[in-house]
Structures are given as structure tokens and as C-alpha cells.
Amino acid sequence: MKRSGRGFILPLNAYLYALAATMALLLGLFGWATLGEIQETGERLDRLEHALAREEFLLALSDTVDRIQGIAERLARWDEVRQQLQDSTYYSYWHQHRLRKTGTLPGFILEAGLYDGNGAPLARFHGDPLPERIPFTPNPRIWRSGERLLIELSHPIPEGPHSPAGHVVLQADLLEAIRETFSFSRLDFSAIDVRDMPEHAVAVETLPGMLHLRPVRSMARQEFMEAVEQAMIRLTLLVVFLALALLAFFSLLVRRPLTRLSEFVTKLRKGELSEEDMLHSQPIAELEAIRASLQDYHLQLETARLDLDERNRELWELAHKDPLTGSWNRRAFERDWKNLRSLLDGTRMEIAFLLFDCDHFKAINDSYGHQVGDEVIRIIASRIQQVLRRGDRLYRLGGDEFATLMLECGRECAEKLAERCLQAMHEEDFSRLGIHEPVHLSIGIAISDAGSLPDLSELKRRADTAMYHAKRPGTHHICFHEPQMDEDEGMLYSSRAIHAVQRAVRHGEGVEMHYQPVFDLHEERVIYLEALARLKQDGELLMPGQFLPTVEAHRLEEEFDQAVLRAVSEDQERGRFPEGVGLSVNLSASGLLSKRVMQLLGELAGIAGGRFLVLEITETTLITRLQDATRQIRLARELGYQVALDDFGSGYSSLRYLASMPVDIIKFDISMTRRILEGGRQREMIEGIAQMIGRAGYRTVAEGIEDEQALEIIRRAGFSHGQGYLFGKPARDTLPETTVARP
Amino acid sequence: MPNGLLANAGYLEGEPGRPAVLVLHGFLQTQDFPTVRRLADSLNEELGYPVLTPTLTLSISDRRSSLACEAVQRHDMEEAVAEIGAWVKWLKERGHRRIVLVGHSTGSVMIAAYLPRAAPEVKHAILISLTHFGPGQAVFRNEANGGVQRARKIMREGKGKELGNFPIAYCRRYVTTAEKILGYYTWDEARVLEALAHSPVPMTAIIGSEDHRMGTNWTTAIGRIPKLEMRIIEGADHFFDAEHEFSLLDAIDELLQRVTNGR
């Protein structure tokens, strides 16, 4: 049984059984009621017949008593009776021969006698049953004598003018008298049993109450009752037959077809239809039409379903796959992550989350066009996919960012895979796309135990953090997330960093500028000081790695740049910089595009007193907003600033791209310096690049020069400038350092 | 009645000046015997005669029905004659000075027995189907004869008051005592003729030609009575049924007119 919004839904058989039960009940009730009616009618007829029989008996009794009375009365008027009363000399003869034997009296009169006016019999005979004297009460009276019911009455003979008074007494067989007197039609007279009657005399009126009267079962009534019973039996048989026929009809023409139709529909729904089911026709045309329609509908539905499945699959793929690369998209990633968490809940398994990012992809896109950019993305996806294990999925999370989740893969496994990815990318010949610069991937890896899987956002954050480190200049392109990173990363959101940044950008407080010299290798002197910001908070100095993420996270680069410029201007005004030494400030992309920053740059230039001024901008700053940046750089140049491209070689480092940039100074990333120092082909290549850039008129700065050996190598490599601990660490007090031509 | 019993009679008033007619029934009958009743009614209603129809008591007071042969018979001829006299007297007391006696069958015998002592007011006697109680009776001749002998024997045996069965008139088993039956038996042919012969009253005997009870000798013997006129109604039997009733009535009317006219 099912319950729907409209009540209980029962199977058809239940209705059939209910119908059968209801019909049986109705038939039973009908039969019971009809039998009851017949029985009641029979009982009514019985009562009526009893009443009529009793009435008939009463009438017969009355008539009979009247008749006997009449006989007595007639005797009383009889001349011979008067003759006997006059003179009873021959009474015995007369009684014997006239009264009893001449047919004067009917046969049921058993005894008759004459009594004189005093109540004495005219004569007494031997065994005379008549009373010895009269009167007697009740009169008439009845009693039982053996099998007979006797009635006795006396009738007075009035006194005549010349005749004495007297009495006639008659004794009669009452039932015989009734039988002779009356012809019964309703009373079964033969069934009257007098044995219940008393032997002492009682009044005749009490007789009906003492006798059990049985009515005559009239033939008409018996025939009527038999006819009714037979009619009832025939009717019952007919109704039962009709009911069975109805049930059979219902079962054959309604239930069975509907059941088969239902089974057909059920199989249809479950997809279990067999060939036979398809061909099996219904006996009812309408149902067959429905079945055929359902079958057609089923086929159409099946076709539609297949079509829909195909479309769903396409849609699903559209929804979950990246159309450009064929790899899974962010939605699929989030779904898989969710499924993975529920599947691996409680199990111990190492999971590696690898986040891939193409370095300087924006620059590639802008330099070589979107089609080339798309092809680079496709190649990246293809290479990574080739390296991944069978079953591992590659997700494109957006732009040039890819990710994969590797189960049962620890640090070593992840690192090996990451290396193979980098290697594959390294082996890829991008020159066929017209790209002559190397295309690098940075890979941030977060390893987690499946038993304690963090949220996706957390794992992604860890991988992001690792990626952030991997992309740092001078670092390896593969970086695992370390707890230490969380401390730095934690600064992103730490209240101390936020507080320090807010103080700096809102009130210009806590900004403490440190300066590191950039040494001119040809002139052997410090040519300018690079201003590096520190934030003082609670007596502690926060390094850029601790607060810049907060600045970037809160999109406060422009405001922070303004704070830095104000601090540098303040140091300038306070005369903290030696004469003849230039000054460089780092600007973010937002800062470069800011009018307010440009104003502050103008103000600094105004108070710098012809000091050599440099703006240091990262490759990313230039690449992401190249046109706007170019326009702003032009404005800065008009203000007297030269432009240094910072951290060259840590990222995109495209020479073609470099040529289009409005920069004057190229600062090689510390990783480039280390490769030079490591020697080999990389040194030669970097040296070639540096010399080529130098020849192109750019000043080149090598970062990370910490000793004389390095300085010599750099110098030989053709760099025009150097920066590093050898020339001076970033310090608040710049004067002693800057005055030293060489350490 | 002289016997102290109550007797019934019917009396129909007639036209003034007409003789009263006393019509007497036959053996054991009453005034309602059909022959008697029809005659009485016709005489009164059609002819205007005052008619008296007595019922002999037959020793039963207030007797109203005929008496069966088998009933206990306690009457005799004397009683009947006395009652006829009583009724004649009754008529006389009602002022009738001309009385005609009409008897039927044994009623005629009883009138015949009365006639010798008839009152002067009795002017005529009409004896219809006259008979007698002796052995000469046609129907029960033999039996009556035997009865007389047996009755006499009983009388000799001193049992005259015991009941017995005797044949008389039309009764085969007439229940009475020997004493009483002999009272009837003595009124045989001879005694009747003798009484008629001594009658002071003119008489008319009306006999049906088909009345064969008494035989032709009896008719002949009657016819010889000097004061008796004999009339034979052709075709009539003992009871003058059917159309003979009218013939009878015409004959009687004629006789009564004669009496009325004093002839």
C-alpha cells in the first residue's frame, strides 16, 4: 500500500477482492434480509392462520352450543315432552323409545333427560350419566371423559296453563357435535387433542384457551411459500451467477488487462521489457491502444533519453571540462574534492595537491596573441596530463592555473612528478609557436593526510602559499608548503600586520624606509639607493614578506606606495641621503597607475634637487598593464625618473617583450646571479643576455652579489651595476654605506 | 277441555248470518293438516263462513303438533267426542246458532260418534273421506283384526294399562294400552253406521272416487243411511289434493248455502 497526496492507493486486486467481498456481503445481507422477510411473512401467516383457526373454532363452538341449545329448546316445546311432564307413567318407555331411538336427536347427543320443576329427574336409569339434580353451574359446562369432550346443558321448560314446568338436560359429545355442525376450512380439526383438558367441569368459554389449535396448512399458502422459496433459490442462484459473472467479467476484461498493462508499464519504467512483452497484445482494444501508445511513447522516450543522455553528457562535459584544454574545470575540481572528502573520510592516505601556474603567461598572451596563448595553455595541459598517472585528473582552475589531486602520493612522489612536469615543459619546443623565451611552470605543492583532510580552501591556500614561494625570484619552481610558510602566510591575515599596514596607509605611521645601495661597477661608486620599506609595529620591525601579502590581499598597493613615497620624501627633506647619490623606489602596478602616486613622485622629484631618481617596477607590473604602465612611465620620465625592471629572470624574462618595455635599467633576479655563479651553459647564456641587453643601451644590475668572487664574475659577465650584501645591506642609516665606494 | 287439558283451536270470524263451520282433523293430526287447513281457510276467506278448527288434545295439553304413531298414546274416542262437544259449546257461546260440523277421515268418525248427542245448533254434518277403526279398514285390515284380538287378550290378562304396539288406522305400531286401543277398535264399521243412523242432524258424506282405503262396500253402506247424502268427487283420493280441493269446496259451499238458507 502506498500513500499519496490523495490518500491510499491500493492495487487493483485489492479492489477486486473488496468488490467480491462487498458483493458477497451484500448478497449475504440481501439473502439474510429476504429470508428474514420470508420467515417473518411465514410467521405472520402462521399467526394469521392461528388467529383465523381460533376464530373459526370460536364460531364453530358458538354455533354448536347454539345448536345444542336449539335442540334443547325444541325438545322443551315438544308436545310429547309436555305429555311426559304431565304424566311420567310411561317416561321410561318414552325416554328409551321416543327420545333416544326415534332419530329425534342427532347422534352427538349422548344423553337427554327431563327434569321436573323442582330439578328432579323424571326417572333415573341404571348408569345414568345425567346429573341427579339440576340446576348445575356453569351451564353449559364441559369436561373431558376419556377421549371425548362432553358438554352438558339444561334448558327450562316453562310452565303452561295446564302443564307443569320442567327442564331438558342434554349431554353431548362436543367435538362430534362441532364436527357435524361445522365444516372447518382453517382449523385442522383432527389435530385437536383434548388430553390437556381437565376432567372436572369448566365453563365452555374457557375451552379455546385450553386447546392447542392447529391451523390447516392451506395448500395455497404452502404452494405460495414453496414458490417463494423456490423463487428465492432461483433468484439467489441467478444473483450468485451474475455476481460471479460480473467478477469474472471484471477480472477478465478489467483487472487482468489493467494488471498486464500495469506490469507492462512497470517493466517499461524499469526497462525490463522483453520482446514478448512488446508483442503481447491486450484483449481490450482501448487498453491495447494505451499499451501501443505507451510502447510508442516508451520508444520515443528512450530515443529522447538517449538524446538527452548525449546532451547531458555534452552539457556535463561542458559544465565540467575546459573546452580549451579538455581537462577538468574548477566545478569538476570542487565536485571531485567534495566526493573525495566523503570517500576518504577516516582513511589514512597521503594526498598531494599540486598547483601549476605558468610564469608570465600574461606577457606571452599580450606578446604573441591569444591564439598563441591558448596554444601554450593547451600544451601545458597536455604535458602535465602526459606526466600524470593514469586516473589522475588535471583541473584548469582558471587562466594559466592548473591543479591535480594525487592519492597515495607523498612528498617524494609529488616532487618527482613535479620535476617531470617541469622537465616536460622544458623539453617542449615553444619556438614553433614563435616563442623564443622559455616557458616555465611554477608548482606549489601541499601534502595532506587523507585522514585529516583540510577544507579545499585550506589545501588550496597551502598550495597557493607554496606557489607564492615558488614564484619568488631566485627560488626553485617547485615548492612544497611548509609550516613556516604558514607563519608568513599567517601575516596576511594577522591582526598585527593588518594593524601596521593600516597605520601606514591611513596615517603614514610606522613606515620606516631602509636603503640598499646599487653599485656602479664601472664608476666604482654607489649610484643610487634602493628604498626598501619596513613597518614598525609594537617595537618590532616587519619585513616586506610579512606585510606585503597583507597589502596585496587588501588591495592597498596604491595607498602603500603613497605612504612609502611620503616616507622617502620625508627622509629626503631630513637630508638622510648623501649628495650625488640617486634614489630608487619600488612601485606596484596600482601605484604606477595612480594619479596621486604620480603627484607624490612629482613632489619627491621636486625636493630631490636633481638627484638621480629611479622607479623600480616588476615585470608583472609592466606585463599586466603594459599600455597603461607605458603611459605612466612616460609621465614619470617627464618628471625625471628612470625606470628599472626589477627581478628580471625570475619570471617571464622575454627579451622580445623587454624590447617593447620603456625601461632604462634591467635588474637581474638573484636566481640569475646564482646561475651565473654556478657556471656552465646557463652562465654563458645569462652572460650573453646581459651583454646583449647592455649593448642595447640598458643598464644592467646583478642582484645578490655577496662577495668579491661573485663581483668578479658579474663584472666579467658584462653587468654594469651590482647590488648585494657586498655593497651594503638594506639599512636605515645609509650615509656610511653610500659613501664607501667599495667594501 | 272436559279432561282438564288446554286445547288449541283456530277460529276465523265469518260474515254475519252465516253458519259456523267446525272442521275437525284426522287421526293424530292437528288443525294444520293440509286438507283441513286449506278447506277451513277457503271457507272463511272465499265464502265468508266463520270457521273453527280445533286440535284434539290427544291427552296432551296445548298440543300443537301431530302425534307420531310411536308416541305414547293415552287418548281415546270418548275424549275426542267430549272435546267436539266442548268446541260446539264454545261456538254456541259465541252466539252461533247454526253450526255445521265437517270432519276429515277419522275426524268424521269422531263427529259421527258425537252426532247422536249433538246440540240443536248443529244443523248439518259433512263427513269427508269417512272411515272407521274396525277391521274393515282397507289398509290395515288384517293387522287391525289381529290387534283387536290381542288387545282383548291383554285385557283378559289384566294388563290393560300396559303399553303395547297395536295397528290402527294408518299406524302399524301404535303405542298405547290395550284399554285405550280397544276404545278405538270398538268404533268399527257397524258402530259407525249405527251412530249415523241415529244422527238427528242431516249429514252429507263426501267420498273421493279414488279413495280406496275403505272399499266400495263401505261407501255403499254409508249410502244407505237415511239422513245421509252421499257425494262422490270423481278422481279425488282420501285427501282431496290438487284440483279436487276445489270440487270439495264447491260441494261443501253448496251444502252450507243450503244450511244458510235454512233448507
Task: Describe the secondary-structure layout.
The complex is a heterodimer of chains A (743) and B (263).
Chain A: E1 2-4, E2 7-9, H1 12-77, H2 79-86, H3 91-99, E3 109-116, E4 141-145, E5 148-157, E6 166-173, H4 174-181, E7 202-203, H5 207-210, H6 219-270, H7 275-279, H8 285-320, E8 328-329, H9 330-344, E9 350-358, H10 361-387, E10 394-398, E11 401-407, H11 411-427, E12 441-449, H12 456-470, E13 478-480, H13 483-493, H14 495-507, E14 511-520, E15 525-537, E16 540-542, H15 544-553, H16 557-573, E17 582-586, H17 589-593, H18 595-608, E18 613-618, H19 619-624, H20 626-638, E19 641-648, H21 655-660, E20 665-668, H22 670-678, H23 680-695, E21 699-702, H24 708-717, E22 721-723, H25 735-739
Parallel strand pairs in A: 8-10, 12-13, 15-17, 17-18, 18-19, 19-20, 20-21, 21-22
Antiparallel strand pairs in A: 1-2, 3-6, 4-5, 4-7, 5-6, 9-11, 9-12, 10-11, 14-15, 14-22, 15-16
Chain B: E1 8-12, E2 20-24, H1 34-45, E3 51-55, H2 77-93, E4 99-104, H3 106-114, E5 122-128, H4 141-156, E6 163-168, E7 171-177, H5 178-185, H6 189-197, E8 203-208, H7 215-223, E9 228-233, H8 244-260
Key attributes of the depicted protein:
heterodimer, A: alpha/beta, Beta-Lactamase, 6-stranded mixed beta sheet, 25 helices, disordered C terminus, B: alpha/beta, 7-stranded mixed beta sheet, two-stranded antiparallel sheet, 8 helices, globular
Produce a short descriptive summary:
Chain A is α/β, with parallel strands linked by helices.
Q: How would you sum up this structure, described in words?
A:
The complex is a heterodimer of chains A (743) and B (263). Chain A has 4 domains: 30-210, PAS domain (Beta-Lactamase); 275-318; 322-481, Reverse transcriptase/Diguanylate cyclase domain (Alpha-Beta Plaits), CATH 3.30.70; 513-532 and 578-739, EAL domain (TIM Barrel, Alpha-Beta Barrel). Chain A contains 25 helices and 22 strands. In chain A, strands 14-15-17-18-19-20-21-22 form an 8-stranded mixed barrel, surrounded by 6 helices. Chain A is rod-shaped. In chain A, 37% of the residues are buried. Chain B folds into 2 domains: 8-67 and 74-132 and 188-260, Alpha/Beta hydrolase fold, catalytic domain (Rossmann fold); 137-186, no CATH class. The longest helix of chain B has 17 residues, at 77-93. Chains A and B meet through helix 2 and helix 3 of A and loops of B.
